[in-house]
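Because discrete structure vocabularies remain unfamiliar, it helps to consider an illustrative case, giving the amino acid sequence and backbone structure tokens:
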Amino acid sequence: MTSRVVYTVCNGGKERSRILASILEKELTENDVGGLEVKARGSYGLGNDDKGVETKYGWTPPEGFVNLMKKKGIKLHTYESQMLTKNEIAHADVVVAVDPTIAKRIKEAYPEYSTKVVTALEAIGEGNSPFYDYLGHSIPDAWGGHLSKNVRDILHSKQEHPEKISRLTTILGGELNEEEKSYIQNYDSTSLDNDPTDIKRIPKRLRDYMGKPIDSDEAYLEEGEHLKKVAKHLIKRLVA
């Protein structure tokens, strides 16, 4: 029997895709599903979009990160991070992108294989996402996070601008810097351009990860827990 291969793909093949691939592998083993491999890959460099954060491939997870994931029962894959290749997608059973931008990037790079690409949160079906609704079909990462729900609630409130600034100053624990002021002043709650996961444009203090401080042990453990929930639903599609 020919082995089937599923690729989970994020920006750099380091975190979201790696954790998800490791969880899916465990799910397959526990469900006694043979003949199906799950591998993590990156997509940065495949497209010209500016949402991706530049990454170096060849990265391996440090021991501390591996041990941290063990606390969630996740045996993290430790191979080097690498970009999804044309040969890999050609032989893939399915390619699972962690957000729509990455799915679009892969489809544009390899249009002849675009039907193999699915977005994880779309694949698991409406109502099954463990993430905030305003994040849409994007799975954020614990390293960069996303626009904080508390901050977003204030930005979308009907209060006048000075009141918003005052409340945000309190929440952030100090005066706003120029970058933060500019983002807040230019934020249009009616615009579809305010992507809550576009971390290159959102000041660091305005971000968190599902209420946890970004790039913290608490955030990474929370990420593992959320990706477990995604995997529980995704596995049903992969073994169908």
Remarks:
- The chain has a mean pLDDT of 93.
- Residues 43 and 197 are 17 Å apart (CA to CA).
- The first helix runs from residue 16 to 30.
